[in-house]
Specification:
Helix 1 runs antiparallel to helix 4, helix 5 packs antiparallel against helix 6 and helix 7 packs antiparallel against helix 8. The protein is mainly α. Helix content is 73%, strand content 1%. The chain has a domain of 141 residues. A two-stranded antiparallel sheet has the order 1-2. The two termini are 31 Å apart. It is built from ten helices and two strands.
Length: 354
């Protein structure tokens, strides 16, 4: 059996090799995509657009390859339903890594364009930038494929929300959108894509939380765990619905999805706290505090009108981030890292007695 230190060194060597491979692929594809006259860093006909697409493709491939190499056979002893959830979660995370890489490169391009106004990058220079972006995205995705924890997914979710929102702000047609609400950013594609992929990530985080709860509680708690996973999936679907139905195209459906997301997350917080073994004091206090804070935040918006809907949305996201971070860190401290195949033929009933 390989020693832990040797195994870690081997994995790190693979990740570095993967980063160099991604760099080479990024340069090669960049030279093809950027052939021709020099291009601006950002905007139409720029370096950033093809570079973002290439980095997204490289990141998705790196995560898929790493998962196949390092988690081969993980689902073999699992019943069909558990294996399906694991595979669907892997596909969802692959899509998420591609989206994160795509928007991160576009955002970096917009920032560089502000600081390097008028710069025109030749094909070779653009290809080198594409290679660097591909190497960074590929390295991070490959590392995630080695051992992806629920805490990593929560970090990915909020990093992606931040990157997508910043890009939408920078490219917003109306610079005074903040006087109304974040939904005004939905007039552009970036913010809507961010919400849709974030919804997919929320549902996937729910599946991973279900996995962690099962490792801790076993098949006896399958029905309660299934309820938690279903609530996260519904919350993710509602959040994606906010992006699918932008406010300028269908305000009623947009508002239903937005307030549905908030309400479902509130219900999820309560249910998860009940299902958690204990529940741990830190999670219990955070859930109560988050619930009270959300109610107060809504009341300060309506009817007291202390701040705008933009401020309410930012505060709500901050509160939910604190609660979700507390939850996944608590699970990380309580849950064993070893995979636990279920003995039940269905997630809705306990395993047969042996």
């Amino acid at each position: 059996m390989e020693a832990p230190v040797e195994a870690d060194a081997r994995r790190e060597s693979r990740a570095i090799a993967a980063a160099w491979a991604c760099f080479a692929v990024g340069i090669a594809l960049g030279l093809i995509a950027l052939a021709g006259p020099p291009r601006p860093i950002a905007g139409e006909g720029s370096v950033a657009l093809p570079a973002a697409g290439i980095a997204a493709l490289v990141a998705a491939t790196a995560f898929a390859v790493s998962s196949a190499v390092h988690r081969r056979g993980e689902t073999t002893p699992m019943p069909r339903w558990q294996a399906v959830i694991a595979r669907v979660s892997t596909i969802a995370i692959t899509i998420a890594f591609a989206a994160v890489a795509y928007l991160a490169v576009l955002t970096a391009g917009e920032i560089l364009a502000l600081g390097l106004q008028g710069l025109q990058a030749p094909a070779l220079g653009g290809a080198l930038l594409t290679g660097a972006a591909s190497a960074a995205a590929g390295w991070l995705a490959f590392q995630a494929g080695v051992e992806l924890r629920t805490t990593d997914l929560a970090t990915l979710l909020f990093a992606f929300l931040t990157i997508g929102t910043v890009f939408a702000m920078i490219t917003a047609a109306d610079p005074r959108w903040w006087e109304r609400h974040f939904s005004d950013l939905g007039t552009g594609w970036a913010f809507n894509l961010t919400l849709i992929v974030a919804g997919l990530l929320v549902a996937t985080i729910g599946a991973y939380i279900g996995r962690d709860l099962h490792r801790r509680l076993g098949d006896a708690a399958l029905r309660r765990i299934a309820l938690v996973v279903a609530l996260f999936a519904l919350t993710g679907a509602a959040l994606a619905g906010v992006g699918v139905f932008p406010v300028h195209r269908g305000q009623l459906l947009h508002d239903i999805a937005a307030f549905g997301t908030l309400g479902l997350f509130g219900i999820t917080m309560v249910v998860v706290t009940i299902v958690m073994p204990g529940p741990p004091r830190a999670l219990l206090l955070t859930t109560v505090g988050a619930g009270v804070a959300l109610v107060v935040a809504v009341l300060l918006w309506r009817p007291l009108e202390v701040y705008s809907a933009t401020a309410l949305e930012a505060i709500a996201v901050g509160i939910l981030f604190v609660w979700l971070t507390t939850l996944v860190r608590t699970l990380a401290a309580l849950v064993p890292q070893e995979s636990r195949p279920s003995g039940s033929p269905s997630p809705l009933r306990a395993a047969p007695a042996t």
